[in-house]
Design brief:
Length: 148
């Protein structure tokens, strides 16, 4: 199971530097390997709300992007609904201060680990570093500038 966080899914909806490499990578995987969490809906909505507040997106544009995101995740990925155990695991990850983990990232990592992810994919350097500190199978398949 390949678990994808929001940073890996956003380029599928919003054209950016990593759009082509993410699309190329996803085409190498079988659909049955593509997993994410319903948590991505919250993070993607937060990203769009920030764009509206900063006036880089209109409310109408944000609503359209959110709708595309929801349809894409539902049609392409197996979507995990976080469970009680996922919240408990996320809290335990946050207690491990050496990882310098952020709350939203802890949820992704907890859901992925609790549901048997063999690979956790992110474009978020801090999340990757924290996941590695926790001994999780996290990374990216493309070089990230300034990141080992």
């Amino acid at each position: 199971m390949h678990y994808f966080d929001t940073s890996y899914l956003a380029p599928l909806i919003v054209d950016e530097l990593y759009t082509a490499p993410v699309v190329d990578f996803l085409t190498t995987l079988d659909r049955s390997e593509l997993w994410t969490s319903r948590w991505t809906l919250v993070e993607f909505a937060s990203m769009l709300a920030r764009g509206v507040r900063m006036r880089t997106l209109s409310r109408q544009e944000a609503d359209g992007l959110q709708d595309r995101f929801e349809r894409m995740t539902a049609s392409t990925f197996s979507v995990i609904l976080p469970e009680t155990e996922d919240y408990t695991k996320a809290a335990s990850f946050l207690a491990r201060t050496e990882a310098a983990l952020r709350g939203p990232d802890a949820m992704h990592l907890a859901v992925a680990e609790n549901h048997g992810a063999t690979a956790i994919l992110s474009l978020d350097k801090k999340m990757i570093a924290a996941g590695r500190a926790l001994g999780l199978p996290i990374g990216t398949v493309m070089p990230l500038p300034g990141f080992p």
